[in-house]
Amino acid sequence: MSSIRLLFLWHMHQPYYKDLVTGQYRLPWVRLHALKDYYGMVKMLDEFPGLHQTFNLVPSLVAQIQDYVSGAARDPFFGVAATPAGDLTLEEKRFAVQYLFQANIDNLINRYPRYRELCDFAGHCRRREDDSLDVIARMSDADVRDLQVLSQIAWLDELFLEDPEVRELVRKGRGYSLEDQALIIARQKAFLSQVLPAYSSAAKRGMVEISTSPYYHPILPLVCDTNIGAVSHDGLPLPQERFRHPEDAREQILRGLDLHERVFGVRPQGMWPSEGSVSDEAIIIAHDLGLKWMATDEGVLSRSLKTDLQRDGRGRLSPESADKLYRIYGWRQGSAAMNMVFRDHSLSDLIGFVYSGVPAKEAAQDFILRMKESAQPALNKDISPVISVILDGENAWEYYPQAGREFLRRLYAGILADKSFEALTVSEAIASEPSPAKLESVFPGSWINANFDVWIGAPEDNLAWDHLSAAHDFFIENASKASPEQQALAKEELLIAEGSDWNWWYGPEHHSANDREFDELYRKHLSNVYHALGTAPPDVLAQPISGSYAMVQVTPQTAYIHPVIDGKDLGYFDWLGAAVHTSERRSSAMHGKPHLLEAMHAGVDEASLYCRLDFAQSPREWPHGGARLVLGIESARGDGKQSYRLESQIADGRLGAWSLYKNGSDEAIADVTGAQVALESIFECQIPLKLVGATRGSKLGVRFSLWHDHLPLDAMPQEGTLELHAVAETELGAMAYAKP
């Protein structure tokens, strides 16, 4: 009897944050994600022994975890959290205020009331940056210590939070002592030591397969030859200097295989190449090194087969497309061969970007239903389709309550309870496949648009490649003059600089609060190549590569507004003085989140709340079948809080029915006298304050979200709400410009 062979592959990755010369870690994300995600994701499978999965652990991540476990890691973020508050210097306190609030507001900070209180106090959670020296001057040592402790608790895995001593710290909530601070630091060290053994144990019991990536996570096809960028995207601007070092690609893979064998006792059989990036040349190298399988994205398969994979409005594949995607392929060129599986982009992205905004039970049921709908044509023909769900195993969980554990438990339990599914490792699925489909060549590309545009082509990207080429050429010309130790250090720095993460943040696609650190660290790695070989680096490496991109814009309301509600973007002065929030399209480490909403304006006058939404993409271009635009409104005064939602149906770019609801009720408020809603080029609405329980002195929080087929498409703000105050007009300006 046929069944759905379901392959989960979780990709665990962080950049190489360590400066090999100073020995210092420039960012803390290896430690924090090791504490929050890596352990629990594999350990949770103990509850579901029949559900096999594949975990892709990037070798440089494994090496960094080992560094922390050994105690050798020098992490200034850990140091500032571990030092008694009274012993911190002014600069260290400033560092703490700058970095210890770098966490998801809704699910990590808001989970702990005192952490949220401190975040508000410092201005971070209200998206306005106070002067850090002013904040520090108003913070007592007790405030700082609470920040130190809670910023570490917030990043603990759900299983680590069950530790009795940690549970007591959570219960205490505030007023932490030096002993409490020492305890959470000590428990971190103990927890970190459990991460890699958990994977070894699961692999030895046959529950998981551990696959690898190239050691420092380079884009293999580009390391082999940057000119391949113009093959996947015709006309793409290329760096001035062609970078072509397939020998480095080989070394990156080989080092990864060797490390995994040392750490986990088994040599990996398969590889998720960095960012799913493949080319025929890269596959041949992987074959030569003994790998049996590789995985990439459906977009690469589509371009390799020179055919589009068709999906309907729900993201379901057509029977013909499902037959192409849900297979194991046998790639072969000459004597080189490789088994290949291709990621279902739609299903994988639902977990990565969508289900965090859906109740866990509904999300799990929806995912199982969608898999069965897409696979049913194959099952009807007594074929066992292979569905590959491949995604980042760490970053997504910050956007889920309790790190998505309820969703995953419901999903895993549902899969095991449904006899239609057989959850396998990739190698198990290959072993069960009698006749892989033939594939003679792959189109060069990554999981993002089946090209390499994220890493090459933009001016910043190409400049970064030119700097790398210059450093590599310098190494080749001068390494023989240096000692073996100097040569080894310089080569290591080159391999680190080949990693994909640096160019992830260059160019127009992505942005984070740590852009400056990433840029500095990349240039530091290249500078270290020259230093290691006894030469001063070129001056150009002292100049930032990263351009100045606008951060998320939040402007408070400064005056009453009285806009005409007609949905037309004609009245500039209508919204002058309103609070404004502008989307930052590069605001995530994740790629693939849709951006349909561009900017929002909101404000009050003496009697009404007004909201406006500008679109990044015309509503006429939204998914067929219509969308639901929801304006969430929180109205608070004193200790009381009410919630409302204005729901508007939009189809074919036109406004349909709209209704106002209170406190989660499904029964619309009948009398909405004075309320107006309009949609033309923009969305506008007016809601009398009395309809949302607001009076003079009330605080309002507003947030838009866009839904299709019961799933969220986009939201603004992405986290929290845009805050307004129902006060006299003369008070608005003073509140907007005063220090909170």
Outline of the structure:
The protein is an alpha/beta fold. It folds into four domains: 4-18 and 33-60 and 196-231 and 246-439, 7-stranded beta/alpha barrel (Alpha-Beta Barrel), CATH 3.20.110.20; 69-194, no CATH class; 459-542, Families 57/38 glycoside transferase, middle domain (immunoglobulin/albumin-binding domain-like); 553-737, Immunoglobulin-like.
Number of E-state strands: 22
Q: Which class do the helix and strand fractions yield?
A: alpha/beta
CATH topology of the largest domain: 7-stranded beta/alpha barrel
Low-pLDDT runs: 548-552
Strand percentage lies at 15-25%
| First-residue to last-residue Cα separation | 66 Å
Anisotropy-based shape? globular
Strand order of the largest sheet: 11-12-13-14-19-18
Rg from alpha-carbon coordinates: 27 Å
Top CATH class of the largest domain: Alpha Beta
Largest sheet descriptor: 6 strands, antiparallel
* Mean pLDDT over all positions: 91
The second-level CATH architecture of the largest domain is Alpha-Beta Barrel
In total, the number of domains comes to 4
Helix content: 25-40%
